Amino acid sequence: MALVGIILLSYFLTVLLSAHRSSTSLYLCRMSRPGAILLAIESSCDDTSAAVVKDGVVLSNIIASQAIHAQYGGIVPEVASRLHQENIVMVVDTALQKAGVTLNELDGIACTAGPGLMGSLLVGLSFAKGLALSLNKPLVTVDHMHAHVLSHFIEDPKPAFPFLNLTVSGGHTQIVLVEDFNQMRVIGNTLDDAAGEAFDKSGKLLGLPYPAGPLIDKKARAGKPVFPFPIPQIEGYDFSFSGLKTAILYFIRDAQEKDPSFIEQHMDNICASIQHVIVEILARKLTKAAEDTGITEIGIAGGVAANSGLRDRLKEIGGEKGWNLYFPAMQFCTDNAGMIGIAGYYAFLRKEFASLDVAPFVQQVV
Ligand code: KG4
Ligand code: ZN
User: Over the stretch 209-236, which tens digit does the pLDDT of each residue have?
Assistant: First the structure.
């Protein structure tokens, strides 16, 4: 029932926003002109984001984060969905204003269709459908994971094809072989937790608020990786982080039995040790993939790409191996509509338009 309400409300808000921003007929079809201006919407998880992309250049990228989840120690899907509903009109309006673009100047609407949380995806996609319908413009749906990979094409320098991408976020950990804008193959995947999840769950064991990744990164800089945690031996390019979580749990339990103030006394060193092992797991698999494929163009994307330890370690290995490394700017590492706009722009040029009855999807279709 709640989701039906969200869809209806999205259409209603869409019409309101259209009326607010546009003085001409809602169904007026504009004459075509060179180039393409797209409005992009991202709402797959807990960030509501909108961007305007003109001819492959991001003119604005507005992100409304949902701090409320910190008090629950993780994202509460129903709360995320309702907050997207509250934020989306303001976020879209701000993105358009910052870009100096009106609704009538848009050539199309790009939107994340998945993977992500169903209730969250429904808000953005319903809103995007409503706009596309009311403006009589094409809708382009974007795979969130492809968009993380294509975030390297927002700013210079851009990788050359083929390149390998390590996509590390709160929900996914993948090594992707990228042949072209629309040709990419996942060659390594996590078998259990994602790298970001490993940071967040370890942080929770230490009493750190969600999301713990950035905090562990900060504290690790003041510490040393003196506590050894095991690196799992997994075949091929796949990852596993669940054993690490268990190892940290038992390590902390045993240490606290001997000294109840162990965490407070050693917080920076524990964080440095956790970060060290997560980074090593990622770096070893990526190095193996690069060696086996002979590819030296290497991209890192997703929220965990912001991690300073990962950046330093990969720069170190890359220097030895002759890699060209690509990291998106911080605002394009974590979830953002700029990357949806870039992925949507290339799909728009290929005329890959979606039907208005397209449904969101929770799991990635590989
Ligand atoms: O890509 P993202 O914004 O959202 C998902 O699609 O999941 O990634 C969020 C994840 C969280 O797990 C967060 O803890 C992690 O990225 N993260 C970091 C850092 N910044 C964000 N992890 C480690 N170090 C960081 N500096
Ligand atoms: Zn993401």
Answer: 989 999 999 999 999 999 999 999 999 9
199 lines ligand 1 (CB under 6 A): yes
Of 46, 165, 199, 330, the one to substitute when testing ligand 1's pocket (max ligand atoms within 8 A of C-beta) is 199
User: 28: CA distance to ligand 2 center in Å?
Assistant: 35
**Which atom belonging to ligand 1 lies closest to the Cα atom of 306?**
26
CB 121 within 8 A of CB 45: no
What are the angstrom distances between the C-alpha of 295 and each of 35, 151, 174, 237? 33, 19, 16, 15
User: Could you report the per-residue pLDDT of 4-51, keeping only the tens digit for each?
Assistant: 454 455 555 444 444 444 333 333 333 343 479 999 999 998 899 999
| Centre of ligand 2 from the C-alpha of residue 361, in Å | 14
Distance 153 CA to ligand 2 centre (A): 16
Residue 221: the pLDDT is: 98
Ordered DSSP codes for 101-165: --GGG-SEEEEEEESS-HHHHHHHHHHHHHHHHHHT--EEEEEHHHHHHHGGGSSSS-PPSSEEE
What's the CA gap between 351 and 140, in Å, rounded?
9
Question: What's the pLDDT at 70?
Answer: 77
Burial 116-149 (b: 16+ CB within 10 A, else e): bbbbbbbbbbbbbbbbbbbbebbbbbbbbbbbbb
Q: Which ligand is nearest to the CA of 143?
A: 2
SS3 2: helix
Shortest-distance ligand to the CA of residue 112: 2
Cis peptide before 211 (omega within 30 of 0): yes
- Nearest ligand, measured from the Cα of 300: 1
Is the CB of 209 inside a 6 Å radius of any atom of ligand 1? no
Q: Is the minimum distance from the CB of 46 to ligand 1 under 6 angstroms?
A: no
